[in-house]
Amino acid sequence: MKVIYDLQERGTGPVTISGMAERLSVSNSSVSGMLRKLSELGLVEHRRYGAVTLTEPGTKAALSVLRRHRLLETYLVAELDYSWDEVHDEAEILEHVVSDKFVDRIATHLGDPVVDPHGDPIPTRDGHIVQHESVLLSEADKGVSGVIVRVNDTEPDLLRYLAEIELGIGMRVEVVERRPFAGSMQLTVRPDEDSPERSQSLGLVAAESLWISTDGNG
């Protein structure tokens, strides 16, 4: 359910069995079996060859797990000095064993954060989630600028690469040139207001994993 919600939330198109199987690293038949069970419980809706969607109870359950996962990631980074490429797998384990009380204590201790280290929104205790407008960097046209607000956290190698080239949440970028046939784009990057701009080439695969809050230009 968490994966279904996450795929829906990122707006990459209808949620399919094959897409879920790829994300979960399991076979299509395994996903089909899971969906049948969830459908019987009234948590998902899925017709053969159709998109997978969550019911209202399914959405509520998914948000509860997402809250646990994203708060745990935030705690691991803020308090235990984990890097952002290490926390996803740890949180995947911990989210199933900690109590609601423990999760609420983490939230209070951290000051009720609204996003996790990857910019993913953290649901509130009552299941409310705040969505901010953003676009994939890979889809931004030449001349568009904005601040990086979110990064796909499912690929640790990608997160390590972004850390190596010093590209992350809160940095301002502008698309200088798109090179679709070369599979890359040229950016200018400003880490913060006190830092000078620098030039950065970025592959489109990496750009497909970054979201920016644009300035409404371009």
TrEMBL record:
<dbReference type="Pfam" id="PF02742">
    <property type="entry name" value="Fe_dep_repr_C"/>
</dbReference>
<dbReference type="InterPro" id="IPR038157">
    <property type="entry name" value="FeoA_core_dom"/>
</dbReference>
<dbReference type="InterPro" id="IPR022689">
    <property type="entry name" value="Iron_dep_repressor"/>
</dbReference>
<dbReference type="InterPro" id="IPR036421">
    <property type="entry name" value="Fe_dep_repressor_sf"/>
</dbReference>
<dbReference type="Pfam" id="PF04023">
    <property type="entry name" value="FeoA"/>
</dbReference>
<dbReference type="InterPro" id="IPR001845">
    <property type="entry name" value="HTH_ArsR_DNA-bd_dom"/>
</dbReference>
<dbReference type="InterPro" id="IPR050536">
    <property type="entry name" value="DtxR_MntR_Metal-Reg"/>
</dbReference>
<dbReference type="InterPro" id="IPR036388">
    <property type="entry name" value="WH-like_DNA-bd_sf"/>
</dbReference>
<keyword id="KW-0010">Activator</keyword>
<feature type="domain" description="HTH arsR-type">
    <location>
        <begin position="1"/>
        <end position="77"/>
    </location>
</feature>
<dbReference type="InterPro" id="IPR036390">
    <property type="entry name" value="WH_DNA-bd_sf"/>
</dbReference>
<dbReference type="GO" id="GO:0003677">
    <property type="term" value="F:DNA binding"/>
</dbReference>
<dbReference type="InterPro" id="IPR001367">
    <property type="entry name" value="Fe_dep_repressor"/>
</dbReference>
<dbReference type="GO" id="GO:0005737">
    <property type="term" value="C:cytoplasm"/>
</dbReference>
<dbReference type="InterPro" id="IPR022687">
    <property type="entry name" value="HTH_DTXR"/>
</dbReference>
<keyword id="KW-0238">DNA-binding</keyword>
<dbReference type="GO" id="GO:0046983">
    <property type="term" value="F:protein dimerization activity"/>
</dbReference>
<keyword id="KW-0464">Manganese</keyword>
<dbReference type="GO" id="GO:0003700">
    <property type="term" value="F:DNA-binding transcription factor activity"/>
</dbReference>
<keyword id="KW-0805">Transcription regulation</keyword>
<dbReference type="GO" id="GO:0045892">
    <property type="term" value="P:negative regulation of DNA-templated transcription"/>
</dbReference>
<dbReference type="InterPro" id="IPR007167">
    <property type="entry name" value="Fe-transptr_FeoA-like"/>
</dbReference>
<keyword id="KW-0804">Transcription</keyword>
<comment type="similarity">
    <text>Belongs to the DtxR/MntR family.</text>
</comment>
<comment type="subunit">
    <text>Homodimer.</text>
</comment>
<feature type="domain" description="HTH dtxR-type">
    <location>
        <begin position="1"/>
        <end position="55"/>
    </location>
</feature>
<keyword id="KW-0678">Repressor</keyword>
<dbReference type="Pfam" id="PF01325">
    <property type="entry name" value="Fe_dep_repress"/>
</dbReference>
<protein>
    <recommendedName>
        <fullName>Manganese transport regulator</fullName>
    </recommendedName>
</protein>
<dbReference type="GO" id="GO:0046914">
    <property type="term" value="F:transition metal ion binding"/>
</dbReference>
<keyword id="KW-0963">Cytoplasm</keyword>
